[in-house]
Design goal:
By secondary structure, the chain is mostly helical. The protein has seven helices and two strands; from the N terminus they run H-E-E-H-H-H-H-H-H. Strands 1-2 form a two-stranded antiparallel sheet. It starts with 11 loop residues before the first helix and ends with a helix.
């Protein structure tokens, strides 16, 4: 795996940010050698959390399309979370909330997923994707 930073507001970074639909900073995009997205996530993390995220991606280097197909044939909390993160960092708020809420329905779901779902509601609310009533209900 190779890491590099891009200034999405200068030079080639502007084009890359558009191509990968980067809504804000920091946004991380893991891609394979064909530039297909494996996973996306956003926000500042602790070093340990970042290492855990990268380890999870290395352990499952399937593309988003492959994760969708796998989820449709046998849903898991891990795929629901991965797809929720992908849609949230792509500005697809309703899809992200749907996946996070599905993730919460699994027995092995972490309670912190409720925060993730609410965070997506609040982020989407700021983009006028959700109403005040929807945000209040999520809280």
């Amino acid at each position: 795996m190779v890491f590099f930073t891009v200034d999405a507001e200068k030079g080639d970074g502007v084009e890359l940010a558009e191509e990968f639909k980067v809504p804000g900073y920091p946004t991380f995009v893991a891609v394979n050698s064909e530039a297909e997205t494996i996973q996306r996530w956003a926000g500042y993390e602790t070093a340990d959390s970042f290492i855990e995220t990268v380890a999870r991606i290395v352990a499952d280097p399937t593309t988003i399309d492959e994760k969708v197909a796998r989820y449709e044939s046998g849903p898991t909390v891990g795929d629901a979370v991965a797809l929720g993160e992908y849609h949230a960092t792509s500005g697809q708020w309703a899809e992200a909330v749907d996946y996070f809420e599905q993730a919460l329905g699994f027995e092995d779901a972490e309670p912190t997923l409720a925060y993730d779902a609410f965070f997506v509601y609040s982020w989407g609310y700021s983009e006028e994707a959700f109403s005040t009533e929807q945000l209040t209900a999520a809280a």
